[in-house]
């Protein structure tokens, strides 16, 4: 018994780790770890560049019978600029994309336009006039604010690219709703005229600043005119100074006095940014019946829009803008009393001579 107890025990089997047992229990040829990286597909080889690229694209030819401009309703084609902020060779239509030459303000028509043929084609597309029931049906369909066929007209007025938007809506709808905001609403007659003339449609509804433009009975969506798009807004040219240091018909001291009177007078009305100004011209004309100088409060409107408003009122009221300061517009009605007296004296002279 003592011999058995004194005999040393045999060495215990060595402990093997789980990874060791797993690696020896599975063949190396079939071992596939669960998180082995997946081989990525090879990237496609880039195509070799075309040895003969089309560097001279074919110019787009358009049959529209008017000069292309960025804005048709907010620019005066008879007023010549005195300078340009960018070279004339930078056409907003892109290099070589239009068969017309850019002059800095417009792309004039190359061929002579027969106005009679243009008017006949417009009458043919419009077809027979709409009945009252048809107009009521179209107005009820498109006059609401949730109408999907709507175009917003902002301070740039009737722009060139807007014509393409109108025809794109006319592909799927008989009419389009146009919501006008900002400076163009001072003269809605001008906006309606350019919309009808440039698009070929007809205004069938007009309420304050909401218009509905009808495409015509015989309009063919598959045969709409080619309208090359402007790729960017061209820089506005430089025009003569709007406000002179000394107003016409006044001395320097009188001009200074008029400006001070206008700045300290109560504001006729307050204009908001991108608002609706359809009643501003009538209010200004009415105020000039009793006042010689008036002030328009254009806080937060922006100096650029203030000058646009002054130019519009100068032609529509008519009046003389004498100061733009701190987003305030000071307007002088001009020497109307002298003009009226001269007209009356001329009429009396003619009657006495007769």
From TrEMBL:
Q: Which organism is it from?
A: Gossypium mustelinum (Cotton)
For molecular function, the Gene Ontology terms on record are: RNA binding
CC per GO annotation: ribonucleoprotein complex
InterPro entries, alphabetized: CAF1P_plant (IPR044599), RNA-binding_CRM (IPR001890), YhbY-like_sf (IPR035920)
Which BP terms does GO give this entry?
A: Group II intron splicing; mRNA processing
Which positions fall inside the CRM domain? 128-226, 248-344
Q: Which Pfam families match?
A: CRS1_YhbY
Region of interest: Disordered: 29-103
Protein name according to UniProt: CRM domain-containing protein
Sorted UniProt keywords:
mRNA processing, mRNA splicing, Repeat, Ribonucleoprotein, RNA-binding, Transit peptide
Q: Please give the SMART domains that the UniProt record associates with this protein.
A: CRS1_YhbY
């Amino acid at each position: 018994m003592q011999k058995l107890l004194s005999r040393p025990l045999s060495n215990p089997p060595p402990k093997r780790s789980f990874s060791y047992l797993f690696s020896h229990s599975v063949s190396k040829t079939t071992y596939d770890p669960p998180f082995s990286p997946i081989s990525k597909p090879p990237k496609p080889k880039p195509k070799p560049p075309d040895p003969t690229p089309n560097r001279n694209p074919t110019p787009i030819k358009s049959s529209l019978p008017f000069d292309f401009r960025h804005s048709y309703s907010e620019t005066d084609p008879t007023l010549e600029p005195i300078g340009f902020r960018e070279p004339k060779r930078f056409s907003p239509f892109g290099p070589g994309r239009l068969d017309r030459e850019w002059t800095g303000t417009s792309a004039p028509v190359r061929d002579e336009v027969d106005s009679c043929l243009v008017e006949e084609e417009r009458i043919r597309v419009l077809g027979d006039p709409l009945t009252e029931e048809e107009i009521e049906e179209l107005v009820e369909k498109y006059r609401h604010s949730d109408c999907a066929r709507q175009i917003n007209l902002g301070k740039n007025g009737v722009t060139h690219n807007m014509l393409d938007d109108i025809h794109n809506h006319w592909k799927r709808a008989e009419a389009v709703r146009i919501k006008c905001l900002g400076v163009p609403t001072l003269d809605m007659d001008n906006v309606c005229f350019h919309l009808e003339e440039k698009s070929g449609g007809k205004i069938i509804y007009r309420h304050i600043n909401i218009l509905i433009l009808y495409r015509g009975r015989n309009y063919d969506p598959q045969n709409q005119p080619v309208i090359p798009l402007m790729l960017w807004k061209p820089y506005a040219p430089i025009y003569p100074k709007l406000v002179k240091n000394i107003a016409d018909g006044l001395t320097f001291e009188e001009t200074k006095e008029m400006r001070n009177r206008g700045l300290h007078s109560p504001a006729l009305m307050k204009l908001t940014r991108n608002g609706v100004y359809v009643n501003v011209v009538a209010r200004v004309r009415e105020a000039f019946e009793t006042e010689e100088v008036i002030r328009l409060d254009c806080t937060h409107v922006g100096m650029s829009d203030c000058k646009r408003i002054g130019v519009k009122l100068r032609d529509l009221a008519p009046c003389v803008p004498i100061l733009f300061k701190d987003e305030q517009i000071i307007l002088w009605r001009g020497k109307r009393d002298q003009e009226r007296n001269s007209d009356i004296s001329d009429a009396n002279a003619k009657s006495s001579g007769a």
